[in-house]
Amino acid sequence: MTEIVPLTQLPATRSKTLDLIGNTPLVLLAGPSEAAGCEIYGKCEFANPGASVKDRAALYIVRDAEQRGALKPGGTIVEGTAGNTGIGMALVANALGYKTVIVMPDNQSTEKMDTLRALGAELVLVPPTKFADPCHFVHTSRRLAEETQGAVWANQFDNTANRKAHIETTAPEIWEQLEGRVDGFTCAAGTGGTIAGVGMALKERDENIRIALTDPHGAALYSYYATGELKSEGSSVAEGIGQGRITANLEGAPIDTQFRISDEVGLEWVARLLREEGLCLGLSSGINVAGAVALGRELVAEGRRDARVATILCDTGFRYLSSLYNAEWLKGKGLPVFDWLKA
């Protein structure tokens, strides 16, 4: 796997383009820190070449398939995704000489679809449906991989090379960037690779670090970690997060506590981070920041006023111009419209 070079030792140039994945900046977020009463940091995953945290998993999944001998020169990578993993996969595949077939629900953002086509991926759109349905995008991608000569199925949800990417890269970066003083980490779960991988690796360094799941409405993991029962309530328009089962990546995740965040609260932070701090982010990032504020407040209430909490700024808001940053779309979903978008 990719060797992690300490940030302070990174050269100004890289020897190959795939070395641009990871080693993203960690930024202190002023508004969330003030709201929590302690330091809230965001890992700037939109700084990856594919503009999302999913570049890390894509690279590790492809390298793992190569090392196992499953992916041969000129082969094809097939994946089911909400979009960002597909974008990361297409970029990694292009750099290594592979083809990509990406299966995606047709209710995801237009920008993701256009980006995948622009990157040269073959895009297969399917109707959104429950995981139990054989037409679900994950099952469709598996069948296409089985039917395509020289293809491998990335299987990001249950391929633990995904989680390994965060054990070996994301968590060590956060630890180093905060000089070994981390009190809490939180993010939402899609595949579960980020929350589980970062949580496991941080706990290895300090078992007292509090790991919190931040779940959107409509997902079942909040209930699972709170009560032991997979049960969903409500719904969310957030793309790429929210899970209704325990994936292989989530197995053994060291979740200490959990928060459920509404789209409205997540959008409030999306708006504030753009208006006050100049960060244009997607809704998953807003939900993560809301969870970080909740975790920070919890730590402060215990007397830990010098606490440091880190979270993931998952992707760029430029990927959602037709949805989150579109007044008519927001109105159609019954969501508040950002002040500057109002006519």
TrEMBL record:
Keyword Transit peptide: yes
Gene3D superfamilies assigned to the protein according to its UniProt record, in alphabetical order: 3.40.50.1100
Domain of life (superkingdom): Bacteria
Pathway of action: Amino-acid biosynthesis
Essential cofactor(s): pyridoxal 5'-phosphate
UniProt key word Transit peptide: yes
EC number of the protein: 2.5.1.47
GO molecular function: cysteine synthase activity
InterPro entries reported for this sequence: Cys_Synth/Cystath_Beta-Synth, P-phosphate_BS, TrpB-like_PALP, TrpB-like_PALP_sf
PANTHER family: CYSTATHIONINE BETA-SYNTHASE
Biological process according to GO: cysteine biosynthetic process from serine
Sorted UniProt keywords: Amino-acid biosynthesis, Pyridoxal phosphate, Transferase, Transit peptide
Pfam families: PALP
Domain Tryptophan synthase beta chain-like PALP: 19-315
Higher taxonomy: Bacteria, Pseudomonadati, Pseudomonadota, Alphaproteobacteria, Sphingomonadales
Annotated CDD domains: CBS_like
Name the UniProt record assigns to this protein: Cysteine synthase
